[in-house]
Model the fold of this input.
Amino acid sequence: MKRSMKKQFISLLLCITMLLPIFSACSTDATSESKGDEKGDKIELTFWHSMGGNGGEGVDHLVKKFNEENDQNIHVKAVYQGEYDDALTKLRSSASGKDVGADLVQVFELGTSYMIDSGLIKPMQEFIDVEGYDISQIEPNLAAYYTIDGKLNSMPFNSSTPLLYYNKDIFEKAGIKEAPSSLEELKEVAPALMEEGGAEMAISMSIYGWWLDQWMNKQGLDMWNNENGRAGKPTEVSFDDNGGMEKALTAWKDLYDEGYAPNVGRKGGTPEFVSGKSAMTFASTASLTQILDEVGEKFEVGTAYFPAVSEDDPQGVSIGGASLYAIDSGDEEKMNAVWEFVKFLISPESQAYWNQQTGYFPITTAAQEEKVFKDNIAEKPQFQTAIDQLHDSNPESQGALSPVYQESRQIMESEVENMLNGNVTPKQATKNMAEQIQAAMENYNLANKK
Done:
C-alpha cells in the first residue's frame, strides 16, 4: 500500500513538473499582452500613392523606416494605386462621403482644385497652425502652387519642373556652345545639329500638355479667367483670346514642318534622345537619373532651362509632380498620426534620400545641407540646373488651377496630335481646345453649383 502511494506521489510530481513550462508560458504571454495594452493599439494608416519604379522603392523604404522608428505606435501601409490619372479617377469613384479607404493620398497637381472642392480633405494649414510649424522651411515656389488664399491645402512631396536635356557631343560637333533658351533659337541651331552634328532630329518632343502649360507660364499669360483660377473657380477659357496658345502651337508646328521636331507620339521623346538619335528632348527633372543611367557612356548629357517660346518671354516655369492630402476622417487620433507621418516624409533626412532615389526636388530647404544631397549633386551636377531654374522662377509663375484640368490636358494633347497629323492648323487647334474645355468647365460648375 505504501509502495502504491509512493508511486502515485511520484507520478503527481512528474505531472506538475511537466506542466510548469506551460504555466510559465501562459504567464509570459499575459505579461506581453499587458505590456501591449499599456502601449496601446496600433494606429493603422493607409497611404495611397502613384510611385512606381525607383519612386515606389523610395516610398517603401520611407514607410518601412517610419514604421520602425516612430514611437507613437503608428503603422503605415503604402498601397500603389496606378499612375496619376488612374489614381485620381479611382479616388473620385471610390469616395463615398469621407470614406475613401485611405488616410493620406498622393494626387498630381492637375487634381488640386478637385481635391479642394471635394470636401474630403483636412488642409495641411490646419495642422501647421495648431503646431506652429515653420512653413518657411518649405521651398517657396513649391508651396506657392498648393497655397490658395494663404492656405496650404496639401503638402508638396514629389515636385519637379521640365528641363531641356541635350547631347553635348552633338552640340560640340555642330560648334554650338550653349543650349537654346527659346523655340526661336532652337529653330536657328537645328540645321547645324542635324548636318554637322549628325543628329537624325534636332529635338524629340513628346506630345504632352505640360509643355503647353509651361509656354503659357513663360509668356506670363493665363490659361483661364479669375487670375488663372487662383482668385476663384475659373468660368472662362483665356488662352484663346490672349494669343498665348496659338503662338506656342505655331512654333511647335513650325519645328515639325521643318523636320526638326518629328511626331514621336505621347510616349516618345526620351527613347530617341538616349539612343543618340535626337540632339535634345524635354523631360522632367525627375527623369535625370533614368536618362543618365540609360545613356551611360554613349555621350555626355547636358541640362538647361526649359525654353520659352520667344526670347523676350518674361516668366519662369511652374512645378509638376504631386502632393499629399490628408483625408478628413473625423478621427482626431488618426489625423494627428497622419500629420506625424507627413512631417517625417518632408524632414531634411527623408527629402535628401528621396531626391537621391528619385530625382524629385527636396521640398525642404534644409535637405540641401544633408550629405546625401551634396553627394548626389557632386555625382550628378546636371541636377543643379533644376535647382537654379526653380529658384530663378517665382511664386507668380506657379501655374493655373481648374477642377477640369485633368480633362483639359487630355483635350490639349488630342488637338496637338490633330495638328501634327495635318488635320487642323494651330489656330483651329486652339479654337477646338477652347471650345471643348469651356464646355467641360461649364458642365462642372453647373453640377457643382452651391
Observations:
- The chain is about 50% helix and 15% strand.
